[in-house]
Amino acid sequence: MLDHVNIGILTSGGDCPGLNAVIRGAVMKGDRIYGVNFQGIRDGFRGLVEDDIRPLPRHDVRGLSRTGGTILGTSRIGPFGEGGGGSARVKQVMERNEMDAIIAIGGEGTLTVARMLHDDGIKVVGVPKTIDNDLSATDYTFGFDTAVSIATESIDRLRTTAESHHRCMVVEVMGRHVGWIALHAGLASGAHAILIPEQPVSMEQICGWVESALDRGRAPLVVVAEGFMPDGAEIVRDALDGFGRPRLGGVGEWLGPIIEQRTDIETRVMTLGHLQRGGVPTSYDRVLATRFGLAAIDAVMDSKWGHMVSLRGIDIETVPLSEGTADLKSVPQSRWDEAAVLFG
Ligand SMILES: Nc1ncnc2c1ncn2[C@@H]1O[C@H](COP(=O)(O)OP(=O)(O)O)[C@@H](O)[C@H]1O
Ligand SMILES: O=P(O)(O)OC[C@H]1O[C@](O)(COP(=O)(O)O)[C@@H](O)[C@@H]1O
Ligand SMILES: [Mg+2]
After folding, report:
1. Which residues of this UniProt protein bind substrate (predicted)?
2. How buried is 60 (Cβ within 10 angstroms: 0-12 exposed, 13-18 middle, 19+ buried)?
3. 103 in ligand 2 pocket by Cβ < 6 Å?
4. Would you place residue 250 in the very low, low, confident or very high pLDDT band (cuts 50, 70, 90)?
5. Is residue 78 part of an annotated ligand binding site?
């Protein structure tokens, strides 16, 4: 038994239902099978560079798979940003805490940082998370199924009120660079138009779909991803979000009045926002997240440094972080064409 091994674990980037199930899976197997110790790093890389670290014993992860958020906290602070101190600072904090390796749970940004740390000789294993489903190295990530379920249930509810008033409803869902949530929630709820960042669609076409739905006696439903670019540019609320990223959200509010003005159909807009990331994970996400956690501790014990766990078909595999962060997984043309047959 390697009972002197200490493994730091962190969650970074936007939170996502299932993070706690990953933590629980890794800690339970690490404790039971490998006899290793865990250290909880608070608020992602912030805790790593500021040495905000606490023991994470097995009893702290009891019952966690059904809970939302992350018990460790998260942030968008990175070690390579201003004042972060880079790999040198991370090595210093790890040494001080006698931390042997890190499990980093995060999206494409976090996994890029993990790869950079690995390039500098730090022992790190990644676990992919994103509600956006935009990581190409894994078939799915936990959080996506929950986000789609919440969006679908919300749209179903918006539908009955829109139908009662013969209104058009525009529903904005998350999806910064890719339209997977919009595509799946839109398909599940029978949307008359699904608008995603990958597909330019003219206002004329959007209004055409809205009018044809109304002509058939339906309350037109438009599902739009926050990253949809109506005129080839993102709709941003503020210039930047404090971490150098444009803060998206607002495309629905932008679209609604234009649809109303052009079609003369009374239109309401709903932005689902962070509701899609809150609360309990679906059972699918709990299972996937738990399996990722179990596989992550195996990867650590196999010294698969610079790798991340990934779902391929029904199997959990490991892939190099460099592969995992190479491309975003966008909605292919064929998937949009398939859905578009049902628009209007
Ligand atoms: N290319 C990069 N180089 C250095 N740091 C990065 C890079 N990409 C992301 N980061 C850091 O990692 C943090 C987490 O990434 P972010 O995109 O916010 O979340 P996620 O991991 O969910 O994609 C960022 O806020 C930033 O501090
Ligand atoms: O939590 P914030 O800072 O409002 O960011 C919102 C963004 O987070 C996400 O939910 C997930 O983004 P990340 O995977 O980069 O964390 C996006 O869909 C959305 O654009
Ligand atoms: Mg990101």
Report:
1. 130-132, 167, 174-176, 226, 268, 274-277
2. middle
3. no
4. confident
5. no
Q: Residue 344 falls within a domain, yes or no?
A: no
Determine which residue's CA is closest to atom 10 belonging to ligand 2: 14
User: What predicted TM-score, i.e. pTM, was given to this entire model?
Assistant: 0.94
Residue 138 within any structural domain of the chain:
no
Environment class of residue 50 by beta-carbon count within 10 Å: exposed (0-12), middle (13-18) or buried (19+)?
middle
Residue 51: CB atoms within 10 A of its CB come to 14
* 164, 103: one domain: no
Is 76 annotated in a binding site? The answer is yes
Please list the active-site residues: 132
Ligand 1 centroid to Cα of residue 14, in Å, is 10
Alpha-carbon torsion, ordered 157, 163, 169, 171, to 10 deg: 20
Whether 73 contacts 23, CB under 8 Å: no
- Whether 113 lines ligand 1, by a CB cut-off of 6 Å, is yes
> Tens digit of pLDDT for each residue in 49-71?
999 999 999 999 999 999 999 99
Q: Which tens digits make up the pLDDT trace of 104-156?
A: 999 999 999 999 999 999 999 999 999 999 999 999 999 999 999 999 999 99
Query: Are 73 and 116 in a shared domain?
Result: yes
Same domain, 148 and 273: yes
pLDDT at 86: 97
Interstrand relation of 193-195 and 221-225 (parallel, antiparallel or unpaired): parallel
pLDDT at 325: 85
Confidence band, pLDDT 50/70/90 cuts, at residue 240? low
Quick check: 235 pLDDT over 90?
no
- Provide the residue type at 185 as one letter: A
Q: Is residue 338 part of a domain?
A: no
Token pair belonging to 230: 């109506």
Q: Which of 46, 75, 80, 118 is the best mutation target for the ligand 1 pocket, counting ligand atoms within 8 Å of the beta carbon and taking the most?
A: 80
Q: Residue 199 belongs to what domain range?
A: 144-278
